[in-house]
Structures are given as C-alpha cells and as structure tokens.
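=== Discrete structure encoding ===
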Amino acid sequence: MNLSELIDNQFYEFALIIFLATVVGALGRLLRQPLIVSFIAVGIIVGPSVLNLLDSESEVGLLAEMGIAILLFVVGLKLDVSLIKSTGKVALMTGLGQVAFTSLFGFGIGLLLGFEWLVAVYIAVALTFSSTIIIVKLLSDKNEINQLHGQIALGFLIVQDIVVVLVMIVLSAVGADTDQSVGMELLYVFGKGLGMFAVVILLMKFVIPKLTKMLADSQELLVLFSIGWAILLAALGDYLGFSKEVGAFLAGISLASTQYREVISGRLTSIRDFLLLFFFLDLGSQLDLGVMGERIFPSLIFSAFVLIGNPMIVLIIMGIMGYHKRTAFKAGLTVAQISEFSLILANMGLEAGHIDEAAMGLITLVGLVTITLSTYMIMFSDKLFNLLSPMLAVFEKKKPTQPAELEDDKDKIDVLIFGLGSYGESVANSLEENGLKYLGADINPAVVNNWKGRDLEAIYCDAEDPDLGEVLPLNNAYNIISTLPDVTTNISLLKLLGQSNFKGRVAFTAREQGDSEVLREAGAQYILEPYKDSAAGVAELFKGKAEKDMAKEKKEDRSS
C-alpha cells in the first residue's frame, strides 16, 4: 500500500493528523507556545497550502462544529445569573459600540486604500467580529472566564454573534435581485429567536429538572443527554437563522440551575478539548496562503487596526461606563482578532460576486495575523498591562477620591472588605450582626452601585491600583479582609498594602488548592479557606455528634 492509498483511508488519515497535532503541540509546549497556535499551524500544514493531506474536510468540519457546541454549552452551564445582571448592560453597550465604531473606521480605511465601496463594506464588517470560540478557550485555560473581564467579554462576544447573523442577512440582500424585504427577514429571524427562547424557558421550568433527576441515576446517560441537548439546540439555533454558538450557549444556561451542572461540566471538559482540536485544524486548513501575496501591505494596515484599534474602542466605552483600566484592557484584548465568521462572510461575498479572490486573501491574511498575535496578547495580558499601564490612565475616569462621608467621619473602620461577591456579602452581614463597622471595595461599578442601592457601605476601586492609599481610607481601617478569588490579585494587594505601610491585620481568601501556600510564601499571615473551613466545621459537627452517641451507648450498656 503506497502513501496515497494510506491517505485515502479516513482512519489512517485521522491517525496521521492526530499524531502530527500531538508532535507539533508538544514541540510548541517546549517552546512555550500556545496550543491554539500549534493546532492552527497543523491545519495549515495538512491543508492545501502545504502538504494537502486533508481529504476529509466534511468530517473534520463536523467534529469541529460539535466541539464548538460543547464549548459554548459548558460556558453556559457555568454562567452565574448574578453576573448576567451586573454585566449585561456593559456587555450590550460595549458589543454594539465596538461593532459600530469598527465598521465605520474600517470602512473609512478601506476607501482610503482604494477599495470599491462594497468591497470596503465586506472588509469593514469582517474586521468587526471576534472569535468567541478562541477567546472562550483562552480565558478558560487561564481560569479567567469567571472573572469580571471574562464575563464582560463573553457577554459582548455573544452580542457580536447575534449581530453577525443580522449583518449576513443584510449583506446577502445587497446587490441581489430579489423582492424579499430585508426588514421582514430580520423581523422573521427575531421572531423565531424569541420563540426558541420561550420554549427553552418553559422546558427549564417544567421538564428539564424532572428529566435530569431521572437520568442522574446513570452518569453516562446524563452526560449523553447533555451532549445531545447541546448539539440539538446548536442545530436548532443554526436552523432558525442564529449561530450554533448562541443555541449551544442557551442549552448550557438551561441546565445551569440544576444540581448536576458540576458533574456534567467535569465529564465534558476532556471531550470538549479533544473536539476543539478539529476546530483549529479546520480553521488552519481553510487559510489558503496562495491568495494572500497580492494584498500584504493593506492586510498589515487592517491587522494593526484590529490589534490596536479594537481594544482601544473597548477601553474608551468601558472607561466612560466607569470600569477600571485593568478590566477594560483585559476585556479589550479579546476583540484584537477577527473570527471564523469573518472568513464565512468573506466567502459568502466571494460566491455572490461582491468581492474578488484578492479581497478574500486579504481578509484571510488579516485573520491569520490577528488570531496568532492576539493569542499571545491574551496569554500574557498581565505583563502587557503592567508595561502599558501608565499610558492607559487616559481611558479611565478620574480616580475617585476618598468619599466625603469618610473624610468627615473620624470613626475608625473595623474591617475593610475587598471583593463584594457572595462570600464578601456574607462576611459583611456577619460583621454587621456583631456590631462591627465595615467598608466594602470592588472593581465592578455595577456591584458597588448594587450595594449602595441596598444601603450597604461600598466604594469602587481596584485592588491592584498602585495609588490604593489615595483611593481608600487605609489609615482609618483596623483590619482588611480580601475575599477575592484570584491569588495573583491577592499577592498584588499584599505588596501594595506593604508599600502603603498599613499596620493592621490582613486576611486573604484561598479558594483553590495550593493558594494557601502561595500566599504564605508571599508573606500573608492570615488565610481564610471558606471551603476547607466549611468542611472542617461539618467534620467537627459530626465528630461531636458521634462522641455524644458513643457516650449515650456506654451509659445504656452500664444501666443494662
């Protein structure tokens, strides 16, 4: 059997591709390169531009679509409803604002570079949309998907996914000889989307809780149902005119309120990662390097606009809304690339005759450059922020000074609480019950406003702000408790408090395994471990009950 016959066998073909992905991925890890970049490189290698080994495009594409569905399903499964309330407004405003400004400026750049108006429209719109799949994978790998900037980014990426569907409907009608009303088509899609959402809500209330409880006797069956449910809603979303991402995300949300979500999420993680390999292979194999050469200069101009301009737009919008420059910067980096939707849209324009091969090659090259570079930008976002931090102050509202009520209040604060999540609120309630005065501090202005709306003491600030002493009344506080979940942020806070010569006691929260040792090595004296402490409390409770039962049994034995 010769090489061509081996490749014609799909099993052998997949074995070769997976082995090649393993080798390149391992080499990438040795060179400290992100796996996403390695897998896209494998796709280019096996694609038509290099070895042309990939004959099973449809099969790889199918596995890729399943991976996308499970990825967004798992994200929806872990979604915190309280975070939707606090980040919904900024996600909507940022998503729509970024789409509008990127389209406008991208169109202007296209005209200045000499493109026809319709070609400039396609290029501008292609630059607008970011890859939900790539960003969610990167943030998940960094354990940042549940942090504030991760939730905001997820929100406006979902907004983008909805907008891109509507844009495709409009662009497909441009220049087409049809009597179909674009407005009616958009209204029809919206109506179908609302109907799908209403059906899912009803299933969440009346069917899903009972069904998952019945299936929970077999974890294998529960996981199988979850995969089927994710892919079914992804397919339904695609059929109704929305993206597969939106449908799969909605499927995850529908199971997020069940008690089995952690079990499902844990079982699907490895399946998700394996299937996503095929998404990146598929993406890389579609990058035809042969049509890129004619448009290198304009592609570099557009790439620079996406890599720099898109994050700046997010920085400006979030800065106006009152978010700290760190949160805005890290959220902004998630739009520093174009998405797979950009390539789909460009291909749609090519088939319709709206753009030519050269424009398609330009958009493809912009995708390759921005996806690769933005991956590194997100992976090293903390170092990048520390480098650029002095220049980012212009995107931030004037730093809040010490509140007037605290300036005039000579009373000391018993406890200053960093982090106003559920644990922070529990700490505040406990302090109040014991007659202690506290002040809460958080980087999320929506959370701070929510606290103030409930007559709770709170102030907006960043625990990693070098000017922390100018923002917070550190000299008025006896103690500080940080309920922040991120160990890196806690270590930064510890260093800043040392630089501010804070003399009181400071307690830090360690939620992940190993965080306690990291904090102690950094110099933290007091460590709060909510999960471990809770478990110890349960053990003490049952230990005390067991001792009482044993004493009772001995007493009964003696009496008998």
